[in-house]
Specification:
The protein is an alpha+beta fold and about 110 residues long. It contains three helices and six strands; from the N terminus they run H-E-H-E-H-E-E-E-E.
Length: about 110
């Protein structure tokens, strides 16, 4: 096999494997990133090992203070991307900060 064929094949394999991860972007740093990571863990625990795509940067950027002092985050999630069972939902996650730690106190997948 010549090099011209190996590079596209390697690229295709790499792109295919790249889709197996969970998060599409990194959340960066700061409170939004900490909250987004807590929400990612909560989402993953409810997906029973299914593949998903969740943009952590978008989730972190969405953080807004709720009236009770908790933080509310929301972002789209694609569950089983590229498969016939693919579904698109919205993650709605509420966290409470204790120092630098974010604890998830509310979580839903919303159609």
């Amino acid at each position: 096999m010549d090099m011209k064929r190996m590079i596209p094949l390697g690229l295709a394999i790499g792109l295919g494997l790249g889709g197996c991860g969970g998060e599409a972007g990194t959340a960066g740093s700061g409170p939004g990133a900490v909250a987004a990571e807590a929400c990612r863990v909560a989402a993953e625990s409810r997906l029973d090992g299914k593949l998903y795509e969740l943009d952590l940067a978008a989730l972190a950027a969405s953080m807004k203070e709720a009236p009770n002092g908790e933080q509310f985050l929301t972002a789209p999630i694609v569950i089983e991307p590229g498969l016939t069972s693919e579904t698109r939902q919205i993650v709605e996650c509420t966290v409470r900060f204790t120092g630098d730690r974010a604890d998830v106190v509310g979580f839903v997948f919303n159609w």
